[in-house]
């Protein structure tokens, strides 16, 4: 049971206090969060809800959905995590982050409803987001799962359309040791009789097995929908209704075609569920204009800087493909900061062919790896050109000082690593 909080005056004060409320930073399970959600009046964030789970690509799929449905003049709301520069990025209405005052009001409402129930930082923020979105009078809410699916706080809400993106190994200590176990956890967002888009072209069998048990209808990449090249600057989305020729996605990298196709399939299902027509022009415009910070984000200069929040081996492989598709004239140096519970060695090996040298940066917090510890793990992955630094700023300065015009500096490994540069 937690002590009652004072009514904090600022967003920062609320966030600092939320970090202390529950004894564990992560505790999967819906019992506590469901009880507080009901005490809030069980707010449904919109008449139509799309929930997105997966290992990689969740944020990109939400960004594409936000852009596509916004282009069709739907009033959208989105809840995503984590944030890069400001907490407000997590809750967006009509594409814009909500102001501090709205979050403070929502946090106060959650605090009043929770009684003596303790909540994790993520659970508190999720309930506040649901409370806010329910009052925003939007057409559709796009909810990104934080961790897993079945026991994630977002899963208190029944989605009208579920989406499962690319699946890989991450958070194995919480979700299970292999893709089958992880697939079962992600498939926990499925609901009986409701459609679910599966964007992974080779999902674990556990996803389909769970859908059969529930009676959920799967819409699968490579079966009910697919994509193919369609000439310079274009690609084709194909499903039972025909073929859509679409422009190059606004998010860079070959893997973003997969995320865009997944989002198009989900947007069409959402439109059917709402009984609305989704114009092909809105789909094309939404795909082309989608934007999301920290996803192969390129900052031009004599020495280009690339920011990417990849933090597991599958994401590193996709990032490597992006780098190889847009090669630098010179060398690429990687500023790497990672959490201690991540597969550092697997990440480094997946990315290594595109990187000439490594600057290991320490990250703050109990999960952050110190620069020296990270450097040892990078060397353990077989890399020799490695330097250790106290923090991201020092690692970035060293990488830039060692670079010549035409070289490139890559910043990756964690949301915190990229956030330190954006800040």
Quick summary:
By secondary structure, the protein is α/β, with parallel strands linked by helices. The chain is built from 15 helices and 17 strands. It folds into 2 domains: 11-289, UDP-N-acetylmuramoyl-L-alanine:D-glutamate ligase (3-Layer(aba) Sandwich); 297-422, Protein-Tyrosine Phosphatase, Chain A (Alpha-Beta Complex).
Describe this structure in words.
With 423 residues, the chain is of the alpha/beta class. It has two domains: 11-289, Mur-like, catalytic domain (UDP-N-acetylmuramoyl-L-alanine:D-glutamate ligase, 3-Layer(aba) Sandwich); 297-422, Protein-Tyrosine Phosphatase, Chain A (Alpha-Beta Complex). Helices cover 39% and strands 18% of the residues. It is built from 15 helices and 17 strands. It has an eight-stranded mixed sheet with strand order 4-3-2-5-1-6-7-8, sandwiched between helices. A hairpin with a 2-residue loop joins strand 3 (91-93) and strand 4 (96-97). It is globular, with a radius of gyration of 21 Å.
* Total of helices: 15
Unreliable segments (pLDDT under 50, ≥5 consecutive)?
A: none
CATH superfamily of the largest domain: Mur-like, catalytic domain
Beta-strand content bin = 15-25%
Indicate the CATH architecture of the largest domain. Answer: 3-Layer(aba) Sandwich
- Based on CA inertia axes, which overall geometry fits? globular
Distance between the termini: 36 Å
What would CATH call the class of the largest domain?
Alpha Beta
Largest sheet: 8 strands, mixed
Strand order of the largest sheet: 4-3-2-5-1-6-7-8
How helix-rich are the residues, as a percent range? 25-40%
- The overall pLDDT average reads 94
Rg, alpha carbons: 21 Å
Could you name the CATH topology of the largest domain? UDP-N-acetylmuramoyl-L-alanine:D-glutamate ligase
């Amino acid at each position: 049971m937690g002590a009652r909080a004072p009514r904090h005056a600022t967003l920062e004060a609320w966030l600092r206090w939320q970090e202390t409320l529950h004894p564990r930073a992560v505790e999967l399970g819906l019992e506590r969060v469901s009880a507080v959600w009901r005490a809030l009046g069980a707010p449904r964030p919109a008449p139509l809800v799309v929930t997105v789970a997966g290992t990689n690509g969740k944020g990109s799929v939400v960004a594409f959905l936000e852009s596509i449905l916004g282009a069709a003049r739907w009033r959208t709301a989105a809840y995503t995590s984590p944030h890069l520069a400001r907490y407000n990025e997590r809750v967006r209405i009509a594409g814009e982050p909500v102001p501090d005052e709205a979050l403070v009001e929502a946090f106060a409402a959650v605090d009043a409803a929770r009684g003596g129930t303790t909540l994790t930082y993520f659970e508190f923020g999720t309930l506040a987001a649901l409370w806010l979105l329910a009052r925003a009078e939007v057409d559709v809410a796009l909810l990104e799962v934080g961790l897993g699916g079945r026991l994630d706080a977002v899963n208190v809400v029944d989605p009208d359309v579920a989406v499962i993106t690319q699946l890989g190994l991450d958070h194995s200590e919480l979700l299970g040791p292999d893709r089958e176990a992880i697939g079962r956890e992600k498939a926990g967002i499925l609901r009986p009789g409701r459609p679910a888009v599966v964007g992974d072209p080779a999902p674990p069998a556990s996803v389909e097995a769970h859908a059969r048990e529930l009676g959920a209808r799967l819409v699968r990449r490579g079966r009910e929908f697919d994509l193919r090249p369609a000439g310079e600057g274009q690609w084709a989305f194909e499903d039972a209704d025909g073929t859509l020729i679409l422009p190059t996605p606004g998010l860079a990298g070959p893997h973003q075609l997969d995320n865009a196709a997944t989002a198009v399939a989900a947007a069409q299902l959402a439109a059917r569920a709402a009984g609305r027509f989704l114009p092909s022009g809105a789909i094309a415009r939404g795909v082309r204009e989608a934007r999301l910070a920290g996803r192969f984000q390129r900052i031009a200069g004599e020495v280009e800087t690339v920011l990417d929040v990849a933090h597991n081996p599958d994401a590193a492989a996709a990032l490597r493909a992006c780098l190889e598709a847009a090669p630098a004239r010179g060398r690429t140096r990687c500023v790497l900061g990672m959490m201690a519970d991540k597969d550092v060695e697997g990440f480094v090996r997946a990315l290594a062919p595109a990187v000439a040298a490594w600057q290991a940066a320490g990250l703050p917090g109990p999960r952050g790896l110190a620069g020296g510890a990270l450097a040892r793990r990078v060397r353990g992955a077989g890399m020799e050109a490695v330097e250790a630094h106290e923090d991201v700023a020092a690692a970035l300065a060293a990488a830039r000082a060692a670079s010549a015009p035409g070289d490139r500096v890559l910043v990756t490994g964690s949301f915190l690593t990229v956030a330190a540069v954006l800040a």
